[in-house]
UniProtKB/TrEMBL annotation, chain A:
Protein name (record): DNA-directed RNA polymerase III subunit RPC7-like
InterPro entries attached to this UniProt entry: RNA_pol_III_Rpc31
Main localization of the protein described in the UniProt heading: nucleus
Ranges annotated as biased composition (Acidic residues): 174-191, 202-217
GO CC, alphabetical: RNA polymerase III complex
Ranges where the record places region Disordered: 142-217
Coiled-coil spans in chain: none
Gene source species: Cephus cinctus (Wheat stem sawfly)
Swiss-Prot/TrEMBL keywords: Nucleus
GO biological process, one term: transcription by RNA polymerase III
From TrEMBL, chain B:
Self-association state and partner proteins as the record states: Component of the RNA polymerase III (Pol III) complex consisting of 17 subunits.
Natural source organism: Cephus cinctus (Wheat stem sawfly)
Residue span, DNA-directed RNA polymerase III subunit RPC3 winged-helix domain: 318-395
Major localisation: nucleus
Protein name stated in the entry: DNA-directed RNA polymerase III subunit RPC3
Length: 217, 499
């Protein structure tokens, strides 16, 4: 009974439609179901203007300033990490671009000292070179070590010794390869991966047949 | 600060200083003050590059550093970045005020952030030499120009935190003279020499230029409203204001009539002298309220009301914006609401004499776009039914101005983006034209024949030429609109400055 009064009103709207400027009989606009267009049509186009001499001059000043800063050292260039290939023009490109550190451009009495570039670059390079040299030496000594090892192995194993004797004239590198191959073979021998435990089920049927030959009474 | 302010700063930094400075600037903008280590962590850039980018920002005054207990903190100043848009205007102003050489000097300083006096003079000298050899300008003449710039406060000392110096006025007197001889030698032979002003840097006084642009706006407003003579009177009044008032005060101290008369007599405006009283009355009684009569002693005391002037200018600007965006009928409604302060819907359609439905439509459009605000008034104890409440429309100018500033940022950002896109998509053609230009100028130097030159010109096909012209026009137009938007932006920021 309480809900009876609700349905009775003339309209379900909670506000008076006339307030919005619609007369009594007028149909309300249909509900909008689509999102507004991305580029709604402009009702009023902006007035166009003509470029005066003054604005032209101002534009020139503006362009000059932008060009200057863009081409100056203030345009911070990203570090080019790796080039794909070395090009002939690289040498000349390097000559054009200013390779000096940005440190020279600033007065460091005015700038916070922590912004100064660290002068580590050369040291880093030196360290790298040293490391490289060490590695080279390492390889050579290692090869020699390997050679001596092989010599000792020759006397130990007779079968290997014959093969090795033929190859002795070849380069040291090959020795290493041979040894690796041999090691692989040994590995294969040592593990049980070599043995085929896998049953592909071929023999299964035969056995079954044998069993099903007939009942033995 | 807003999203579009950030985007605008970002795009400006990109245009001038490349992507690394841009990302460091963005980072500082987003997070406020930051130390070096944090910037590096959030930007993910290699440390040396972050340092370099920070150096650039500091050099141009786009950021400042402060020593705190947590180490050095870097602050970003977005307003200073946006002033890049205004640099050409400043240079042009210096040109008008102090001549071409002064303009070049100012340009040199702007290009480098700050610079020593000797360097500025030497660089300007070099540039003058390159530009026109027939008109020789001497170093001493340039020095005078420099002093003129300093005297007019277009340049000020750039003082860092560590070295506190005495006033700049005596400084130039003592450092420029002994610079002269040695600097000359420097230029001739390219030797390194000590010009005697090591570590005494000068930077552009942006504050001063802002004042000048402000004054220019006021003078041109009066000129447009009344006439040339009135504009000149306004200019003289502003000069007089500087003598007795702090430059950013809301209203000037009273200026006596006798002084105005004296100042006007010195300049060559016969009509203004003749009708000075009438002009003063005109300005005083004008609805724009630039000038106010504050006393009657000594023929009258006048005071310039800058604050009121800019609120009037802002109103006019906003009204014009409404007019251009929504049409004249909407502008009428807007003006009506402005004059009535708080007004009801019924009254709007009656007073504006616009049919009810249209008036409502326009009002609600303005409301939706935030040009109008709505205030609900309920009778005490009445139910919440909408019929029982009044809906009053009003304008909150501060809010509208802030919104318009936002629109300006947005428009500037879009314009710059569009311009970049135009030049990027036609890069090949623009480059080609540049190549042809350099080729022709090279060949001309080597004495090429007409035929050869014509051949090179023909490297561009007619259709390419047409296209190029179109693109260049578009880019120019976009640049021009950037300048105009910035003008509006400046006016609106001035309003906010006073309110």
């Amino acid at each position: 009974m309480a809900g009876r009064g609700r349905g009775r009103g003339k309209a379900s709207m909670s506000i008076n439609v006339e307030q919005l400027g619609f007369s009594k009989g007028e149909a309300l606009p249909p509900p909008v179901l689509q999102p507004p267009p991305k580029y709604p049509p402009l009702d009023y186009k902006p007035i166009s203007f003509t470029l005066t001499n003054e604005t032209n001059y101002l534009l020139e000043l503006k362009r000059d300033f932008a060009e200057f800063t863009r081409e100056s050292s203030y345009n911070v260039q990203p570090i080019v990490i790796k080039k794909d290939i070395e090009r002939y023009s690289d040498k000349y490109q390097d000559m054009i671009t200013d390779k000096t550190s940005y440190e020279a451009h600033y007065d460091w009495t005015r700038m916070p000292a922590e912004l100064k570039p660290a002068i580590k670059k050369r040291k880093v390079d030196n360290i790298k070179k040293v490391v490289k040299k060490k590695k080279d030496i390492d390889i050579e000594t290692k090869l020699k070590e390997l050679e001596t090892k092989e010599d000792t192995q020759q006397s130990d194993t007779e079968e290997d010794g014959k093969e090795e004797g033929k190859n002795e004239e070849k380069e040291v590198d090959e020795h290493v390869e041979d040894e690796e191959e041999e090691a692989d073979e040994e590995m294969d021998d040592g593990t049980d991966y070599y043995n085929n435990y896998f049953d592909n089920g071929e023999g299964y049927d035969d056995e079954d047949d044998n069993l099903d030959d007939g009942p033995i009474y | 600060m807003s999203l579009f302010c950030e985007k605008l700063c970002s795009v400006l930094l990109l245009e001038h200083f490349g992507p690394i400075v841009q990302s460091v600037g963005d980072d500082l903008f987003k997070h406020g003050a930051k130390s070096l280590g944090f910037i590096r962590a959030t930007t993910g850039l290699p440390l040396p590059k972050v340092k370099e980018a920070l150096c650039v920002l500091l050099q141009y005054g786009f950021a400042i550093h402060r020593q705190t207990e947590k180490g050095i903190q870097y602050h970003f100043l977005p307003d200073k970045v946006i002033t890049i848009l205004r640099y050409p205007r400043y240079m042009f102003f210096a040109k008008k005020f102090c001549g071409d050489e002064a303009e070049m000097m100012l340009e040199e300083v702007l290009k480098r952030g700050y610079e020593t006096a000797s360097q500025i003079i030497i660089k300007t000298f070099h540039r003058l030499e390159q530009h026109r050899s027939e008109h020789q300008s001497s170093l001493s003449m340039l020095k005078d120009k420099f002093e003129l710039l300093v005297k007019n406060q277009f340049l000020t000392r750039s003082i860092c935190t560590e070295t506190m110096d005495e006033g700049p006025a005596e400084k130039i007197e003592c450092n420029v003279p002994d610079l002269n001889m040695q600097a000359m030698a420097q230029i001739m032979q390219g030797n390194t020499d000590d010009p005697g002003d090591n570590k005494i840097y000068w930077r552009v006084n942006l504050d001063r230029f802002e004042q000048d642009l402000r004054d220019q706006i006021m003078v041109s407003a009066i000129t447009k409203r009344v006439d040339e003579n009135a504009g000149e009177l306004m200019r003289q009044l502003l000069f007089l204001m500087y003598l007795r008032t702090a430059s950013w005060a809301d209203t000037s101290n009273p200026i006596p009539y006798s002084e105005i008369k004296e100042a006007v007599r010195k300049i060559n405006y016969p009509l203004l002298v003749q009708y000075l009283d009438q002009y003063l009355r005109l300005l005083e009684e004008d609805s724009s309220q630039f000038l106010k009569r504050v006393g009657d002693s000594g023929g009258g005391q006048f005071s310039i009301n800058t604050k009121e002037a800019f609120s009037q200018l802002a109103w006019t600007t906003v009204e014009n914006i409404v007019m251009e965006r929504f049409g004249s009928k909407a502008a009428r409604i807007f003006r009506l609401v402005r004059s009535r302060k708080y007004v009801e819907q019924e009254q709007i359609q009656q007073l504006a004499m616009i049919p009810a439905k249209e008036a409502k439509h326009l009002t609600y459009t303005l409301l939706q776009e935030n040009y109008l605000q709505m205030q609900e008034l309920k009778k005490a104890g009445a139910s919440a039914a909408p019929t029982k409440t009044f809906f009053l429309f009003y304008i909150d100018l501060n809010q509208v101005v802030r919104m318009e500033i936002e629109h300006c940022y947005h428009a500037l950002y879009n314009t710059i983006q569009r311009r970049e896109q135009e030049s990027a998509s036609n890069k090949r053609m623009i480059d080609k034209q540049l190549r042809i230009q350099t080729l022709t100028s090279n060949l001309k130097e080597h004495g090429a024949t007409e035929e050869q030159l014509a051949e090179i010109v023909e490297m561009m096909t007619p259709s390419e030429k047409l296209q190029l012209e179109k693109v260049q026009n578009t880019i120019k137009k976009l640049g021009g609109s950037e300048l105009q938007i910035d003008e509006t932006l400046f006016l609106l920021t001035m309003y906010l400055h006073y309110h």
